[in-house]
Write a structure and sequence with these properties.
The protein is an alpha/beta fold and about 300 residues long. It folds into two domains: about 5-90 and about 145-225, P-loop containing nucleotide triphosphate hydrolases (Rossmann fold, 3-Layer(aba) Sandwich), CATH 3.40.50; about 225-295, Alpha-Beta Plaits, CATH 3.30.70. The protein is built from eleven helices and 14 strands. It has helices at about 40-50, 70-75, 90-100, 105-120, 135-150, 165-180, 195-200, 215-225, 240-245, 275-280, 295-305; strands spanning about 5-10, 15-25, 30-35, 55-60, 65, 75-80, 155-160, 185-190, 200-205, 210-215, 230-235, 250-255, 260-265, 285-290. The strands form three sheets. The protein has a six-stranded mixed beta sheet with strand order 6-7-8-3-9-10, with helices on both faces. A four-stranded antiparallel beta sheet has the order 2-1-4-5. The protein has a four-stranded antiparallel beta sheet with strand order 12-13-11-14, with helices on one face. Helix 3 packs across helix 4 (about 105-120), helix 4 (about 105-120) crosses helix 5 and helix 5 packs parallel to helix 6. The longest helix has 16 residues, at about 165-180. The model has no long low-confidence stretch (mean pLDDT about 90).
Length: about 300
């Protein structure tokens, strides 16, 4: 187990930021951490980054206990906060060489390592640019380049796509996919759920400091399914079609939305192929029929209450 928390709790006076968090993340996983603002995501990541001490409970990274063995943990992790620090008078090359020296990377090795991370993050053409002149997206790529200098096992990324334009988000996502292929264990918090669904192997949903669900994305989505819904569009006589479906066995409800009939089947009914036959036999021409997709965003909305602390 590369990351594990046991009864992890963090209090700020009466405010409980984390409440008995139990989390297990395997080597090589890409774990998406999702929840409303103030749910406890950043607190968890800062504890794993050894920047915060838990009130009680335990957090382990690569087998080492946060607080007792933090010096052993820090060389094994790379932490990217949600906002980039100001380095107004440094160019990109100097910035990376400065941090490489902090990890005791010297001489020819430093030059090689800096060149490698510039190439990996596609920043070679910006090596002589002032850090402060970079766009938000390039600053995020530089932040990731910085934490890769010492080749950490675990990457802790707090909202890495926050404030980025669509192109920059896609570029960051592709970079993270490459890091996943390289075998890095990635913990990433984000509000852009459809991108997490593409990137992550497992997710955890947290609300008011409590972990509601944790597991493979497919399992989380399955838990959120409350029944089968079918969207039907007919060419004409939609009201008559709705009346027919309302009288049909196995159908719980029929609603109309944006020119579509939204048909909810009874819980034990999943096969909706008979609906096509029924409509055709009653001379309704079907323009479209499809099952409603339940994705990570749908699951999040159904499984959380939107409560913040």
């Amino acid at each position: 187990m590369i990351v594990e928390t046991i009864n992890l709790t963090k209090r700020y006076g009466k405010l409980v930021a984390l409440n008995n968090l139990h989390l297990k993340i395997e080597d090589g996983e890409c774990f998406g951490y999702i929840g409303p603002n103030g749910a406890g995501k950043t607190t968890t990541i800062k504890i794993l980054a050894t920047l915060l001490q838990p009130t009680w409970g335990e957090a382990r990274v690569c087998g080492h206990v946060v607080g007792y063995e933090s010096r052993k943990i820090r060389p094994l992790i790379g932490y990217v906060p949600d906002f980039f620090g100001a380095y107004e008078d440094m160019v990109v090359q100097e910035y990376l060489e400065f941090f490489a020296s902090a990890y005791n990377i010297t001489g020819k090795q430093r030059k090689r390592v800096v060149g490698d991370v510039l190439e990996l993050t596609d920043l070679v053409f910006k090596r002589d640019a002032l850090v402060d002149s970079l766009s938000r997206g390039m600053q995020q790529r530089l932040s990731i380049a910085r934490v890769l200098l010492h080749d950490p096992k675990v990457l802790l990324l707090d909202e890495p796509a926050s404030g980025l334009d669509p192109r920059a988000r896609i570029e960051i996502r592709e970079l993270l996919k490459e890091l996943r292929r390289m075998g890095k264990t990635i913990i990433i918090s984000s509000h852009i759920l459809h991108e997490l669904a593409e990137l992550c192997t497992t997710v955890g949903i947290i609300e008011q400091g409590e972990l509601l669900l944790h597991g493979p994305i497919g399992d989380i989505i399955q838990r959120a399914k409350t029944g089968t819904k079918v969207h039907i569009r007919v060419t004409e006589q939609q009201d008559l079609c709705a009346l027919l479906l309302q009288k049909t066995r196995g159908i719980r409800s029929v609603d109309q939305s944006d020119g579509m009939l939204v048909v909810e089947l009874e819980k034990q009914t999943h096969d909706f192929s008979k609906l096509t036959k029924l409509l055709l036999e009653n001379n309704f021409r079907i323009r479209e029929i499809k099952e409603e997709e339940v994705n990570l965003e749908t699951a999040f909305m159904r499984l959380t209450k939107g409560i913040v602390q």
